[in-house]
Model the fold of this input.
Amino acid sequence: MAAEIAHTLVLLDPEAGTWERADPLAPQLRVDDLAPHRGDGIFETVLVSNADGRGPQAHARAAHLERFGQSARMLDLPAPDPEVWDAALDAASADFAAANPDIELFSVRYALSRGLDRPAGWVLTIPIEEKYPRQRREGVRVRSADRGYEAYFGQSAPWALIGAKTLSYATNMASGRWAQANGADEVLYFSHDGIALEGPSSNLIIRRGDELITPDPKAGLLHGTTQRTLFERAAEAGFLCSYQDLCAQDVAAADAAWMVSSVRMAVPIIAFDDTELTHDAGFTERMHGWVLASS
Ligand code: PLP
Done:
């Protein structure tokens, strides 16, 4: 039997600006909190590596915190104090690394709920799902799926919270099950008018020669921290990186394509609907190196 992983939890009082370590196996959240009932809150999932005795390193830390603040603004939640959340992230990561010195890669999920009479926050370590290391090597089969709104709908519909990382992920999870029931691993959402958006928990990047292209976040998707890191590094390496509207034919005709996110890093797309895509393993490796070298 695999050894039990010891997870760590830090609870935050966002109004008081304080945090404390807590038992991840003990009950913590009130049943009347608005997070379990309405998904009324926000979260981030950060990749943390703990290799070569350097201690835990959170990747894209600043970009995650910046997006957390942006999500809070969109939901009219109190602005998260970066110092407090940073300290809580470090405490949870350090405790996890001390208890699990052999685990080189894990993730930390932090969340802010509207709570009930006051906001509640927590920071919890989460294992990297077993499927991801395999998917990084072998790739994923992706199916297109209509997200049900027109591209750029969020620009005129702030209440739709498009581009905020909210705790309401039931439809995202359902899309994954639908993909699997239909012979694929992942869904790639398209707007109702046919513009590529994102996966249920990842962004799309395609390669055309020396050009990397990703959908414009304003079209109706979450602006990914991993995509941003990859674009920064790729631009330094001489690639032309841009945000563009892409249709299904652009994905099918790409030289290579990836689903990218904090816990995936970059997973190559080996099939898109009925089209087989080329798997550029060398470039995928290079992308992993860029993510792991980022702070
Ligand atoms: N899009 C959605 C809907 C997501 O949930 C995520 C991450 O979970 C991403 C994109 C990728 O974002 P990141 O690279 O910051 O992990």
Remarks:
- The chain has two domains: 8-128, 132-292.
- The radius of gyration is 19 Å.
